[in-house]
Amino acid sequence: xxxxxxxxxxxxxxxxxxxxxxxxxxxxxxxxxxxxxxxxxxxxxxxxxxxxxxxxxxxxxxxxxxxxxxxxxxxxxxxxxxxxxxxxxxxxxxxxxxxxxxxxxxxxxxxxxxxxxxxxxxxxxxxxxxxxxxxxxxxxxxxxxxxxxxxxxxxxxxxxxxxxxxxxxxxxxxxxxxxxxxxxxxxxxxxxxxxxxxxxxxxxxxxxxxxxxxxxxxxxxxxxxxxxxx
Length: 230
Description:
The chain has a single domain (about 5-225), classed as Glycerol uptake facilitator protein, CATH 1.20.1080.10.
């Protein structure tokens, strides 16, 4: 771990969350395609940009999954996770400050009224009344994303196309489940908007699901689906 790696994780997570939150805010106007394409495209670009500096995690659950699979040491992992959370929180508060939150009349008109305004939270129709079902789905999503990360990037089976495979996987997962859970797939992406909106009610279940799924993925791909030598 180097200072450059931590700065790369900070900027990368900030960028991912800034773009993701912005796409969530305008989703009432453009639909689920906005966050799906936004997250998938920005993750692809960020991996190409920063993978040689920090490994391009940008996600505390990804870092935990790689820690379980022995692909990162505990101290660097903790530093990465703290940095990623900071990046997500900064992104959330900055974008709300810039657009003026629910006080921006032009924003409210754009999204179709105050009832459609949101802070880019990662919530869906399951979150309020079936939050633990949403958490299970989030656990499955991070498992699937880490499957792609391990096999395409960590084990270098996709070469330079790893970034594309990860971005496509993320976009597909958001398309499939964004309406159900908000398709967080990233604790940093969840924490920032939740704090900005003042609603932490779903935070613990989501974190349990995301980190739980990451642990399972790290064990499966770090110890079982390990490519054979030669």
